[in-house]
Amino acid sequence: MDIHQFDAIRPFEPTELPEVFDRLLQNEQFLQVLAYLYPGVPKEAIGMKMHQCRTNLDFQKAFCYDFLKNLLAKASLGISSDFSRIDLKKRHTFVSNHRDIVLDSALLHVELIDAGSNTTTEIAIGDNLLKLPWVKDIVCLNKSFIVERSLPMRQMLMASKRLSDYMHFVIAEKNDNIWIAQREGRAKNSDDRTQEAILKMMTMGGEGNIAERLKALHIVPLAISYEFDPCDWLKAREMQLRRDVANWKKGPMDDVISMKTGIMGYKGHIHYQCAPCIDKWIDSLPADMSKNDFYAAVAKHIDHEIWRGYHLYPSNYVALDLLRGNNNMASHYTEADRMAFEKYLEGQLAKINDLPNADTAFLRERMLEMYANPAINQMSVIK
Fold it and tell me: Of 121, 172, 288, 315, whose Cβ has the fewest other Cβ atoms within 10 Å?
């Protein structure tokens, strides 16, 4: 395959980086971001450091890694990960639950580097997040490939085929990993379920039957657990707007606000848990399964592996008891944990101050569900 057939969606190639760096260093909005991130540092010094990066991975290590490490020190109580069930020398497609627009994949990169991996991942990102040209430059510099959305049906099929071909190209020919969310968009209620459409897209490329095509991507289910979600109140607010306003649609700044809130807000503890690669499990499936049964079985298996992999915190158990009006989970938390979570919840709900008819009971219940659902799902697969 020729990489240029993917020009519309692929990350930048190393030979293209100098031109991208120059373009970014002439963009006023990008320079404002630099001034915020590196106060007092001349843009010439930053430009020189950028131009020393020969590859996208160099850029991630020179800029993104330190930024994320500093962010974790300020906005979390630390991150942990477990890659013990996979071989980091091999290439995989990490399919994860989706909590945070930016950090889900970015923090995976930090953990892969710290675990000794010699690469990070190429990131699947929706084109709805790339309305500003300089943001698209940053994203494609950071090893992201573009998922085209909101296309007419015929174009959507062609775009899905190209996307699938590119994913197979990344694993087989670029020898890199991939990160993709298990569904389009974040699961606002934290009830994480794999969309079969994602799996069907993956099998549009590659060779052989659908099982062989999926195995060629070496899928690894990945469970991402944040103790606290800084965007919980924004998600609850959106749920009330969708309930109350006919045909409500997100505004042009909504995703930007979610990205900024998710990055800068407090997250508590964070954990990344890898399940084994599903290739051997696919081999165990009956050879005569129908396509529909195959996709349903794979989606269910990925879901169950993610649910098993959740790292549950006292906040999850407290939320479940508050949601159900009992104390059945009280052995998993202290009274101090319960009081702290209730205070946290109150503070987050208070941020929703621009709805003319804020339904506090509804908003509170939606937020409790966000924290309770991971516990409910995990308990359904771990008896």
Answer: 288
Q: Give the count of beta carbons closer than 10 Å to the beta carbon of residue 39.
A: 7
**260 touches 100 (CB < 8 A):** no
pTM of the model: 0.97
Instruction: Return the domain boundaries, the chain.
Output: 3-229+265-311, 315-381
For residue 140, the surrounding DSSP H or E stretch is: helix 133-141
Q: Which two tokens stand for residue 229?
A: 């979600």
Around Cβ 237, how many Cβ atoms within 10 Å?
21
**Helices (H) and strands (E) in the chain — how many of each?**
17, 7
- The pLDDT-based confidence of 350 (bands split at 50, 70, 90) is very high
- Do residues 307 and 192 lie in contact, with contact meaning Cβ atoms separated by under 8 Å? yes
- Beta-sheet strands, E only, within 205-328: 219-226, 270-274
Asked if residue 97 lies in contact with residue 304, where contact means CB atoms within 8 angstroms, the answer is no
Which residues does residue 59 pair with via DSSP β-bridges, in sequence order? none
Domain 3-229+265-311 is found in CATH 3.10.310: no
* Percent of the chain whose pLDDT exceeds 90: 92
Three-state secondary-structure class, residue 269: coil
In whole angstroms, give the CA distance from residue 264 to residue 260: 6
323 contacts 372 by C-beta, under 8 angstroms: yes
* Coil/strand/helix, residue 155: helix
Beta sheet of 79-82, edge-to-edge order: 79-82, 270-274, 219-226, 93-96, 178-181, 122-126, 144-147
Contact 9, 162 (CB under 8 A): yes
Q: 332 exposed, middle or buried (CB, 10 Å; 0-12, 13-18, 19+)?
A: middle
- The structure tokens listed for 170 are 């990344």
**DSSP3 helix / strand / coil % (the chain, rounded to 5):** 55, 10, 35
- Centre a 10 Å sphere on the Cβ of residue 147 and count the other Cβ atoms it contains: 21
Q: pLDDT value at position 53? A: 98
**Which H or E run includes 343?**
helix 335-350
Strand partners, 222: 96, 274
Please state, in angstroms and rounded to a whole number, the distance separating the CA atoms of residues 293 and 315: 36
